[in-house]
Amino acid sequence: MIKERIEKLRKLLKERNIDAFYITGSDAHQSEYVAPRWRGREYLTGFSGSSGSVVITQKRAALFTDSRYFIQAAREIEKHGVILMKSGTSDPDPVEYIKREAGEKANVAVDASEISISEFRAMQKALSPLTLTAAEDILSLIWTDRYPVPFSPVVMLSDDITGEKSSDKIERVRDEIKKKGAAWTFISSLDDIAWLTNLRASDIPHNPVFYAYMLITEKEAILYTDINRFECLDNLPFSVKPYEEAISDIENHIAGTGYINDKRVSMSFSFLEKYSLIVGRDVTTDMKAQKNEREMEGMRKAHLDDAVSYVNFLSRLEREGAGDEIAVSDMLEREREKREDYLESSFSPISAFASNGAMCHYSASEESNRKITRGLLVLDTGGQYKGGTTDITRTLLFGEATEEEKRDYTLVLKGHLALSRQKFIKGTTGCQLDVLAHQFLWNEGMSYFHGTGHGVGCRLNVHEGPMNISTRLVDVPLLPKMVISDEPGLYKENRHGIRIENLIAVKEDMNTEFGTFYSFEVLTLVPYEKRLIDMSLLTEIETAQIDMYHERVRKALMPYVEKDAVKYLEKATSPLKEK
Amino acid sequence: MIKERIEKLRKLLKERNIDAFYITGSDAHQSEYVAPRWRGREYLTGFSGSSGSVVITQKRAALFTDSRYFIQAAREIEKHGVILMKSGTSDPDPVEYIKREAGEKANVAVDASEISISEFRAMQKALSPLTLTAAEDILSLIWTDRYPVPFSPVVMLSDDITGEKSSDKIERVRDEIKKKGAAWTFISSLDDIAWLTNLRASDIPHNPVFYAYMLITEKEAILYTDINRFECLDNLPFSVKPYEEAISDIENHIAGTGYINDKRVSMSFSFLEKYSLIVGRDVTTDMKAQKNEREMEGMRKAHLDDAVSYVNFLSRLEREGAGDEIAVSDMLEREREKREDYLESSFSPISAFASNGAMCHYSASEESNRKITRGLLVLDTGGQYKGGTTDITRTLLFGEATEEEKRDYTLVLKGHLALSRQKFIKGTTGCQLDVLAHQFLWNEGMSYFHGTGHGVGCRLNVHEGPMNISTRLVDVPLLPKMVISDEPGLYKENRHGIRIENLIAVKEDMNTEFGTFYSFEVLTLVPYEKRLIDMSLLTEIETAQIDMYHERVRKALMPYVEKDAVKYLEKATSPLKEK
User: Fold this and answer.
1) Separation CA B447–CA B193 (nearest Å)
2) A178 CB-near residues (< 8 Å, 6+ apart)
3) Which of A425, A439, A447 has the CB atom closest to B442's CB atom?
């Protein structure tokens, strides 16, 4: 099947004099998660992972993916004759590979709709003297039963939930781009558009966004998406035109300098490059990151609901036990589904027991699903609620903990606590605070290699920018009402994994003669695993911080947890040192 | 006098059709500290501070300087009719000022030798559509008794001190630039040249560098400096040509791609821009920053000498008292002068009592010199020794401390200690570690606004790059044998200042399954002020860290301090909690 597909594609490439075809694996909006239509990578190689690119030449088909997927990719692609190029090893990257494989005069092509202007221009430069062409959608010519662009119905969120009318947001966008010297902006990023329009849909699982483009000029606001998504088009503060018409229609509406995010706008819109352009991240990305008070209330309510479900789940787990990884995450999902405001999970849950937990992007499959015996379980899950989004990781203990497990858990917890209790002066970025989460592990010669914190949307994507907390130097200050995760971890190969994650929100703390200071409000309300805490490693401040948090959790949840969970909650939140 | 000078200059500008003349205040090598020849700023405005630029038009003369100097500048320049433009306020910067002042068609000029290529190109762009010209040295035409370029005698350091022959360093430079794709490099930075040649001189007070340029090609190495500095030219691994000939001679020796630091090479060498150029910081800057083992030994020995002097001084101060700020720093200087290897101070000492200490760049003058009564004294000093360079700040207490002083000192000390005891994974930058020094102050709504740490040369400049520890995001990892300061502070206007500074060196600590980890070796060996420590604010780890440091100090210094200082040293280094 896959071999046939590749041969069909090769024929089309030959006809078009294309020596190498590059498939980015992205959708037309550079989304982190894509609708099935854009699973061309899987269609051509059999690889079902969520990250990677493909290069097809007349002789070879190669998949490029990272260490998370080396084993899975090899298993899935080799039977189809596709070769694996391991990113981050001595294997060539796509550019090096194409140069080596396709010869010095090769014509290279990529589907214009699947590559951002920024990536295309960088690749063009790197491939030189080879030519890179932004081509038509060749894949669809062979993929005859390709999924269409999904156009699920949209719902308009009430002002109660969004806290700001779409018309007001559009006016703010106009002000922002004007300040930057631009007369219009074209937005391709789906969660930016969802935020701006106050619309939500279900085109992509877990991410309540919808495929669309948005054009805002001084006078007009046009949403390009399927018109049939709407029950009613009245009273919208923007006009709606068909998705496919964006390319041909935009130029009827723009004049003067434009503002675009060339990392998100695809090469299908490269005609915009003939205008004077200011390039930067979408202004909506910064606006969206700082929640308003109504959104903060929605986030707090979502976290309360989520915590009630979580404690009910923990209590049930203790009473009833759970057979395997999938059974555990299913049990939690069932508890979440009991909340009135719960919509769906905010991402595919990670439930990873014992050594599976040491693979920090492990996802349990029917095959890998592991029985729960003695050991640690990393449980990273989250929910979409009517008014907000949650993302929480707890490391659960089954049976008795080893000294090593307790020590590791406590060191991760100390970093998690240090970050969330730190106050910081206005202007501070996430990369400046990151060491607070790493410090105790580093002192013991240990570390983790994922980010410490990512931004989280409000009833939107569980990953959003522009800020983060990471060792990468990202120059974006943390500002009030930004919601971000605090999730240090530790992964010991073939032994165990640990991760502890709360969502925290930046808040104003104090103004002094030295300036304005911010601190974090902890949104997540679920107890830590006290049986995994090595008290001898805690300072008095840390002990007090845990006890205060647990007291807050107990008071917040007690009125709402089910009767059977009351005793569990009392025990789980009692002081570390019983007086 | 100054008015006359400005009038003379204006006449010359008019003849040359120059509407605005910009004086950067830099020397021809963009040195932090300059020889008197380059004090054109002071010659034309009367301002004696160490930082600022000047714009002269037919109508006005304006000085641009930062908040450290607002009061001093106003006092010094206003009597000469020069106006003050306060940097970092709503006042215009030089570019805005020139645009406003000199009209839309103005010709702007700057002495080519005093502006870097990088700064010139940026300013040219910012001034557009005005024209900016890199002009001849017009100032020297009116400044007839201007100081010459200083050419003090050079000394060649022995291999014992440098640990690496100049010829080997030159070979390493050739390797480095070859890796970057360049065939030659032209170096203008004075401390880079001193390091590369293993030569030292005294052209600039405190900084043992000498005015020179260095050209390294695949076959040649040419030092452009005064030939008469040398007692003997035999056996040098480079040829020596006159300083003035650099401009005309270089092109006889270069071909192909060059490597330059356009932030340090002046516009006098703008002819280099016609070559293919790779631009970056001088490769010597990175090489110099990582000391070799011999240099580390020299640094350790210098710090031992410095600490012996310091403790002798502290003991004398306790016995004899000191009348005023200058008397205190003089007393310390006299103790340093007793060490055989001591050469000179490594910068102009800061001795700032009580509220003077709250001005973090205060320098005591005859006028400001303050009597020592009760309170805190910030004493920031350092020495040049035969084999190394020191930089130390201690905050001394006279009389009894207030609760506020103790709390402030302890919070600063906690940050200072946290930074120096942190281990960190390879690849970590200074800006990632900075929060460790700020964290306790920020939690109390306090902060300081200078860098936490700067690189320090070995028998070289007390400030050197490329790494630092600061809230600015500088993407330079800390590497083994880099020497850097650890100097958090706190400045309360009209009350007191506090700063605690040690030099620390990066060292390899451990290799684990998670990677390579580094830690810091503390070089400075002088007790903290125990009477300023609020024990209730210290954790057990901090108490142990202080006690261990003091024990190390006592053991290291006891054999060397003078008899009268033995008791002082014992008392100053005894454990915080006497058992």
Assistant:
1) 37
2) none
3) A425
Q: Hey, what are A287's tokens?
A: 């606006």
Cβ contact A293:A299 at 8 Å: no
User: Which of the 8 DSSP states describes residue A404?
Assistant: H
Looking up tokens 């609020």 gives B534
Q: What is the tens place of the pLDDT at every residue in B473-525?
A: 999 999 999 999 999 999 999 999 999 999 999 999 999 999 999 999 999 99
Q: Which residue reads 């107890």 in tokens?
A: A527
Sorted by sequence, the CB contacts under 8 Å of residue A236 that are 6+ apart come out as A166, A223, A230
CB pair distance less than 8 Å for A423 and B445:
yes
Residues 6+ apart with CB under 8 A from A385: A298, A301, A302, A305, A306, A339, A341, A342, A343, A459
On chain A, the residues whose CB falls within 8 A of the CB of B473 are 429, 431-432, 473, 475
Mean pLDDT, consecutive 10-residue segments, chain A of 579 residues? 96 96 96 94 94 95 92 92 94 95 91 97 95 95 95 96 98 98 98 98 97 98 97 93 97 98 98 97 98 98 98 97 95 98 97 92 87 97 98 98 98 98 98 98 97 98 97 97 98 96 98 97 98 97 98 98 98 88
CA distance A70 to chain B (A): 20
CA distance B422 to chain A (A): 6
Encoded tokens for A474? 């990202």
A368 versus B460: the higher-pLDDT residue is B460
CB-based contact A439 B442, cutoff 8 Å: no
H runs (alpha helix) in A1-93: 2-15, 40-45, 70-77
Nearest to A423 among B423, B442, B471 (CB): B442
B431·A428 Cβ contact <8 A: no
**The length of chain B, given as a count of residues:** 579
What pTM was computed for the model? Answer: 0.95
Are B442 and A431 in contact (CB < 8 Å)? no
Closest CA to B391 of B340, B463, B320: B463
**Residue B551 CA to chain centroid, in angstroms?**
31
Count residue pairs from A and B with Cβ separation < 8 A. Answer: 83
From CA B371, how far away is CA A527, in angstroms rounded? 58
B249 burial via Cβ count (<10 Å: 0-12, 13-18, 19+): middle
Q: Is B56 helix (H, G, I), strand (E, B) or coil?
A: strand
Element (H, E) at B134: strand B131-135
What lies within 8 Å, CB to CB, of A488 at 6+ separation is A412, A415, A416, A419, A437, A438, A441, A448, A452, A499, A500
Angle at CA of residue B539, ends B536 and B544, nearest 5°: 110
Share in percent of chain B as helix, strand, coil (round to 5):
40, 25, 35
Measured distance CA(B300)–CA(B307) in Å, rounded: 10
Length of chain A measured in residues:
579
Determine the pLDDT at residue B68.
Answer: 84
